[in-house]
Amino acid sequence: MSKNLRLREERKRIGMNQTEFAEAGGVQISAQTNYERGVRNPDWDYLERISDLGVDVLYVVTGRRSRAVEAPVFSQQYGKVGNVVHAGDGVSIGDISIDMGGGKGRKK
């Protein structure tokens, strides 16, 4: 999958339309459209801004998922949570342990 398609996939995963995503990234809608069509590459400032939304920028650029993106997105989807701890391939949130595949989650 190409970078532009991974960017679109991440935008949809976050739950934003192109206009909202462009605004959050500090660009015009035409730039966002060009990024997602593969006509133009985003700059560093844009990538930094969208990473603050929970976008997995490593995935967009390389195709490899970053483990660090899991907790912010979970928090964004389910509200503020405390005590987020990465444990191998799992995430512990308070008394809840979520297995992210392959590792042993632990109950906190």
UniProtKB/TrEMBL annotation:
Domain HTH cro/C1-type as annotated: residue spans: 7-60
Pfam families hit by this protein: HTH_3
One MF annotation (Gene Ontology) recorded for this entry: DNA binding
The protein's name in its UniProt record: Helix-turn-helix domain protein
